[in-house]
Amino acid sequence: MTDDRTFQPDHEHPDPESMTRSELIRAAADGEVPMDRIGGDDLARVEFERSLRAAVNRVSGEAAAPDELRASIQRMFTEHSEPAIVEPIGGGDTRSPSFWNRSARWLGVAAVLALCATVIVMSSRSGGSPFGGHQGAIQAASFIKREADSCTEINNHFNAKFRARPLEETRHLALSIFAKTPDAMLRADDALTSLGYRFAGFGKCAVPGPGRSGHLIYHYTSSPADALSLFIQEDPESMNIDSDHCYRFPVVDTTDNRVVAWRENGFIYYLYSHNAEAIAAARTIFHAPQREITLR
User: Fold this and answer.
1) Which of 114, 176, 218, 239 shows its CA 20 to 30 Å from the CA of 93?
2) Using an 8 Å Cβ cutoff, are 61 and 133 in contact?
3) Are 171 and 183 in contact (CB under 8 A)?
4) Are 213 and 97 in contact (CB under 8 A)?
């Protein structure tokens, strides 16, 4: 969907015209500048930035330090604490042996903290709630809602992303992204056609998480805003998803964004539309489980 809002720079959102290329990409990934400011060559970079940040949030959102580790870190700071002394930074100070002797202890503490943080994040990858818990689910739903809504109209972003337009081309592109064709792409879409939907395209995407992903979209002839999107991601097998259930994601704003997801045969599928009837029909077409769990 084309973002036609007038961008108003302020202290939190600097003027895009004053940004470097890398700053503009990072700002677009944060949603701070409209996507129409991003050139076609940089769209993939924006998607990568979004997926990288989402992946970090997903694995760390529910992580908590064990009590023993927390106590050890507190003791470390207590043992090395000194009265705060404000000193000017200068060449003579940094060349002083006392400067480096005093700083070495804190460098050691910082190294231990970094190692502890790594252990905590890595341990959070396995176990826990489906989709990384509430924070992970919100992150995934936010990405899917934002990306799907930006593809309801055929514009520069749409043309750059969706390389496969005829339906028969999607399987060839899917094989170049994944090791095999996802089962959902082999199923008939006659029911969607009867509801007024037409296949619009398939392309690579960057759904939060470690698996490669793609985006399949159907446009609704009478209301472009009600497009139906199916995001397909390789199953990392570490998200504790029960293949017998379909998961409804929590809302990310004041509306029901209707993101549902399920696991099947090596893939995770995320289905999204503003149209509740289309969601219900697509769940049947794509063989999503009938049993549902609402993520909190």
Assistant:
1) 114
2) yes
3) no
4) no
The answer to whether the pTM exceeds 0.85 is no
Q: Which residue has the tokens 């007024």?
A: 196
Mean per-residue pLDDT, 23-51: 76
294, β-bridge pairs: 248
Strands 267-272 and 228-234 turn out to be: antiparallel
Which residues make Cβ contacts (< 8 Å) with residue 192, sequence separation at least 6? 218, 228, 278, 281, 282, 285
Residue 168 pLDDT greater than 50, yes or no: yes
Calculate the average pLDDT of the chain: 76
Rounded distance between C-alpha atoms, residue 130 and residue 133, angstroms:
6
Could you write out the DSSP letters of every residue in the chain? ----PPP---SSS--GGGS-HHHHHHHHHTTSS-GGGS-GGGHHHHHHHHHHHHHHHHHHTT----HHHHHHHHHHHHHH----------HHHHHSHHHHHHHHHHHHHHHHHHHHHHHHHHHTTSSSSGGGHHHHHHHHHHHHHHHHHTTSS-SHHHHHH--B-STTHHHHHHHHHSSS--GGGGS--HHHHHTTEEEEEEEEE--SSSS-EEEEEEEETT-GGG-EEEEEEE--S-S---TT-EEEPPPSSSS----EEEEETTEEEEEE-S-HHHHHHHHHHTT--S-EEE--
**Sheet of 267-272, strands arranged across:** 197-205, 213-220, 228-234, 267-272, 260-264, 246-248, 292-294
- The amino acid present at 77, given as its one-letter code, is F
What would the two tokens of residue 268 be? 């995770």
Cα–Cα distance for residue pair 80/76, rounded to 1 Å: 6
Structure confidence by residue, pLDDT tens digits, 112-123: 555 554 444 444
